[in-house]
Amino acid sequence: MTVSAKSEYAPLSIDSSSISIPSGSLEFVKWFAFLAMIADHVDVYLFNRDLPYLYEIGRLAMPIFAIVLGYNLARPGIYQSQGYLRICRRLFIHGALSVPIVYLLRQNAGLTDPFPLNIMFMLLVTTAFCLLWERGESRDYVMAIFLLLFCGLFVEYFWPGILLGVSVWAYYRYGNWYVLLGVGMPALGLICLLNNNLWAIASIPILMRDE
């Protein structure tokens, strides 16, 4: 299964076929990322990172979530069906519900800083950026950039996390290799710096594969 909007929009750069993510693989990696996130939270918040390998496995969760989100946001017709707004609403509700839970876990781990907000809000900002950019008006571009610059300061993984999801969306939506390689890959490198390890890079071969 290949998601491409080339029938609706002209590519912005290189005219080449998008790498496809088979539907079975997409479902598998979503569950893998979810379990990796749970394992990471258990290790960080309950065991002070004393459990072997769980922290490293947990570094795969965020890049996978960002790539899967970007892939799904690029599905044809999502703007016309108001899919962006539905996704934003779900992310906001789940993010808001998770705030008190994350706060209690952070307190248990001796962390008192309320920021950054959890990954749900990072994915929310990513989706809102793509929605604004899709609208295509000058004011929407300005709002999207302002949203990225301002909100990136307060969400988990900051600007690199948002840019990774946006660059994947731009690639699948428009066939734009330049954004994927020029923005997405450097963003993934910055995520590795934030993690102090290279495990996030393993999200690339897990997701970017042909049928």
Please characterize this protein's 3D structure:
67% of the residues lie in helices and 0% in strands. It has 211 residues and is mainly alpha-helical. It is globular.
Gap between N and C termini, in Å? 7 Å
**Strand count, sense and closure of the main sheet?**
none
Average predicted confidence as pLDDT: 84
The low-confidence parts are 1-17
- Given helix and strand content, the structural type is mainly alpha
Strand content: under 5%
Shape type: globular
The radius of gyration is: 17 Å
Number of helices: 9
Which percent range fits the helix content?
55-70%
Q: State the total count of DSSP E strands.
A: 0
The helix/strand order is HHHHHHHHH
Oligomer: single chain
List its salient traits:
mainly alpha, single chain, globular, 211 residues, 67% helix, disordered N terminus
What's the structural blueprint in terms of helices and strands?
Elements: H1 23-47, H2 54-58, H3 61-73, H4 83-108, H5 119-135, H6 138-151, H7 158-174, H8 177-195, H9 203-207
Helix pairs in contact: 1-3, 3-5, 3-7, 4-5, 5-6, 5-7, 7-8
Give a brief description.
The chain is built from 9 helices and no strands. The protein has 211 residues and is mainly α.
